[in-house]
Amino acid sequence: MSARAGAAPEAVLTLAEAEQLALEHAPWFAHHRSNVEAAAERAVYEGSLPDPQLTLGVVNLPTDTYRLNQDGMTMVNIGLRQQFPPGDTLKLRARRAEQELTREQARLEIERRALLKQVRQTWLELYYQRQALRVLADMRALAQRQLAAAEDRYRAAQEPQQMLLKQRQMLARLDERELMLNAQQARLRAQLARWIGPPAHRPLPAELPVLPPLPAEFETAQHPEVLAARAGLEAARAEVGIARQEYKPGIMLDVSYGARRATPDGQSRPDMVTALVTFDLPLFTAKRQDRKLAEKQTLEAAARYESEDKHRELRAMYETMRAEHSALGARVKLLSERLLPDVQREARVSAAGFARDVGELREARQKEFDTQLELTRLRVDLARSHSELLYIIGENQP
């Protein structure tokens, strides 16, 4: 027995597995996780004072001898200098960093939902292509049987050449359709491989998966896009506060100790302590502080408009997708419960010998195949709209 014959069949790629692989291995999702980690680190240091400065030097060294004990004003100096930003700048910087962290966390959730939506929709479309190829294989088998029958009838002078050519054209059309579906399937697998890698080329299961249930209510205020916009607004407000603090003076505190050498005849000299306080003087504010404050206030207004627009956009998206989802569900119910059973009964009756001619039988079978394809298309579209709603509303995470 060959190795191929003894090998176990390749495991199918379920939608749940594709989702998990994407969340674990998609590079651009990892990129957003890194942004959250960076924002968390920034939130720690933004509210801290700048590092103090150490000053070392020699003060009032005479240039004729360069001796430390020649002049009583010569000192070896060591000091510390600390800068204090104006007003509540540190507190506001910390608040801004916290809001930026909140925004990055919301963006990570946005990307998680977007990634799941794209993986789901690509997987579902790939599932449709596979199902369409199966139905197409049945249609092709029927077309080949009908072509063989038409050739027999033509050789027996029971059917004109026109009918034979028509059967050949129908088979060629099916072959063309198969080529198109295979090309679309290859494109979808390549797109899926971007997120999950080589497992994208594994076969799919025969049945549609069950997606997570839709929550009963939708609160736009809890959507991560709104949370990100709100955090952006709060960060912009902190920026306005920081700009206002620049009208206040910053402070620099400088303390130093100067050690003096004894005189040449051995008499000691007292050491010196120096303490300085330096203030900024924000006197000319028209072209700097005023302009900066106006800029930050304008950005705050823009962030507020963005937050309001997100509420409206998400509500409109939700209402649109809800209506589409309901309509697709009604169409699936109609086709599966009424239309497809009637079409299948018509095909069975025609195949049992009640059709008036071969053309009527062919038309009945073609109608059955087309209805099966249409129902599969609608079921996949219903699942795709379900995934759109999960992006908007959210889902319970394990």
How large is the share of residues in beta strands? 5-15%
Named CATH architecture: Up-down Bundle
Distance between the termini: 45 Å
CATH domain fold name: Outer membrane efflux proteins (OEP)
* Largest beta-sheet characterization: 4 strands, antiparallel
Report the structural category. Answer: alpha+beta
Mean pLDDT: 87
Give the tally of β-strands: 4
CATH superfamily: Outer membrane efflux proteins (OEP)
- Outline, from the CA principal axes? elongated
CATH secondary-structure class:
Mainly Alpha
| Low-confidence region ranges | 1-7
Q: Number of folding domains?
A: 1
What helical percentage do the residues reach? 55-70%
Total helices: the number is 8
Question: What this model shows, in words?
Answer:
One of its GO terms (molecular function) is efflux transmembrane transporter activity. Residues 87-153 form a coiled coil. Belongs to the outer membrane factor (OMF) (TC 1.B.17) family. Keywords: Coiled coil. This is Transporter. With 398 residues, the chain is an alpha+beta fold. It has a single domain, classed as Outer membrane efflux proteins (OEP), CATH 1.20.1600.10. The chain has helices at 3-6, 15-25, 27-45, 89-155, 161-196, 224-245, 289-354, 358-393; strands at residues 53-59, 75-84, 251-259, 272-279. It has a four-stranded antiparallel beta sheet, with no helix packed on it. Helix 4 (89-155) packs antiparallel against helix 8 (358-393) and helix 7 runs antiparallel to helix 8 (358-393). It is elongated, with a radius of gyration of 38 Å.
